[in-house]
Amino acid sequence: MDEPLGAESLEPLPSAMGQLPFGVEPLPFDVGDAVQLKGRPNYLKTADPMPMLRPPDLVDSDEQGQVLAIKARNQLAVRFRRGTFLLEADQLQAAEP
Q1: Burial 17-26 (b: 16+ CB within 10 A, else e)
Q2: Which residues 6+ apart lie within 8 Å of 8 measured at CB?
Q3: Are 31 and 49 in contact (CB under 8 A)?
Q4: pLDDT band for position 24 (cuts 50, 70, 90)
């Protein structure tokens, strides 16, 4: 018993080596990036443990938000002035300075 049990599973994953699995595209944003909405969504979904749907007028079209977390299925948790919401990556653009 030279190696600890399960040592063969300690190899880095492909995503850790800079390669993503087939069919997975990198997100255009990282945690901490400033973003804006591209357009007005039909609704906003809160990033709470029990999400709720909120009206879209809680976020102004020119308001900047900050990416707090990257979630599953290309969703990002973005903090705006009136709350933190889950948004698809394609609904966002980089904030203009």
Answers
A1: eeeeeeeeee
A2: none
A3: no
A4: low
- What's the whole-number mean pLDDT along residues 10-27? 57
pLDDT recorded at residue 19: 64
Q: Which domains does the chain have, with CATH numbers?
A: 27-94 (2.30.30)
DSSP state of 18: T
DSSP character at residue 40: -
Kindly list the distances between the CA atom of residue 12 and the CA atoms of 15, 18, 22, 91, in Å, as whole numbers in the listed order: 8, 10, 16, 32
pLDDT score of 31 more than 50:
yes
What CA–CA distance (Å, rounded) separates 29 from 76?
9
d(CA 54, CA 67): 19
